[in-house]
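Input:
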Amino acid sequence: MPKKRPSPKRRSGCPLNASVEILGDRWSLLIIRDMMLRGFRSYKEFLESYERIATNILADRLRKLEAHGIITTERNPSDGRKLIYSLTAKGIDLAPVLTEMVLWAAGHEDTANQELVRLIQKDKEQFLAAVRQRWAEQRIRSMANY
Amino acid sequence: MPKKRPSPKRRSGCPLNASVEILGDRWSLLIIRDMMLRGFRSYKEFLESYERIATNILADRLRKLEAHGIITTERNPSDGRKLIYSLTAKGIDLAPVLTEMVLWAAGHEDTANQELVRLIQKDKEQFLAAVRQRWAEQRIRSMANY
DNA sequence: TATTTTCACTTGCATTTCACAAGTTAGATA
DNA sequence: TATCTAACTTGTGAAATGCAAGTGAAAATA
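Output:
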């Protein structure tokens, strides 16, 4: 059941505007990419990702993503220092957005990671299904830790 | 022929990162929405759009979008004050990105404009084809002005 | 022709956000 | 007990943003 939170003080009711207000910055989607495509789940992994996000920005973005219901945070039961960040259903539903952004840049800009691009181009729906499947499996494995 | 410009000082070669560096702010995609979906073509129209962009920000974003080859600027031959902003092929290729962002927000946030959302949901490919068609027609009409 | 309007901006300034470096705290490890 | 690690927070300067007012060229109007 997708809960739709009322929008507090949005600039407009346009759905694109909502997306832009939530995701329209230089870091949020990269964090989501790291979780969705690379399986990153810890603060340290995000920090060490290639684009080098600053630690205060990372903390801020994780807070905001959680506030928006895109990720969840839980403590690792076997090591109380570690936090595990996971994508919610709302978060994994961003897969088509990321996918189209990858395809657009790959088609119009000089970019790397052509294996990923070709994989998406070959069969977009299958790629999205695989992403969702991995997410679902990781979820089950997480629950098994308790 | 899609020219791929070399990326000057990108944070990484990841295609998603390229998209985020070009489009990842609170206004660029709204300007593109106004051009793509509402047919806006002048500075004044963008300024008066519902979200109320500041004039200096608008000028800056139009400059950057043009520098990235997403829009073009031409002077209206019948009124030398007016400039006409148009989406390039690279710009109209953002339609799938906008579409997925609209669907995501519509599914998870409290948003308006449900007619548009339902139109997209009914047949996404047909919606995209219609957007492209309108763009192509507008292009031809523009050329006819000369 | 002179004056006013329109259009697409620019400029100045206060506020907010960002980037970088350093420091902090709770919990694990030796 | 001391050290280490993970996940932050804090401080500071730089850059981006938001708001109001002003500018200049071209067009419309008197």
